[in-house]
Amino acid sequence: MAKKQINVRVDEAVYLGIEERAAAAGMDVNEYARQLLADEANDLRHRFLVAAKHFADEWADHFDDRFGTDGHGAAPARKDGRAA
Asked: Which end of the chain has the least Cβ crowding within 10 Å, N or C?
């Protein structure tokens, strides 16, 4: 498949942010930007994220009722000191 080139201009602050994220991911800026754009263009990924959000929104209260939460994402300790 033929490769296409995209040129995008960003200001210095945006570039520095991209550069930091690329470094954290162990990638150079071009590789990171290429992966980011490929992920955004991936319809299957987008549909998964939409479905996951719907699931979380629909079932969050049930999970809280069943497992509880301490407000930080962890279940509260039981009275006997063990995790719930």
From this structure: N
CA dist 76 and 66 (Å) reads 12
pLDDT value of residue 7: 93
Chain centroid to CA 12: 24
Q: State the DSSP code for 6.
A: -
Contacts of residue 39, defined as CB under 8 A and 6 or more positions apart, other chains included, come to 45
CA max distance for the chain:
63
DSSP output for 28-84: -HHHHHHHHHHHHH-HHHHHHHHHHHHHHHHHHHHHHHHH---SSSSPPBPTTSSB-
CA distance 18 to 45: 21
Q: Which residues contact 19 (CB under 8 A, 6 or more apart)?
A: 29
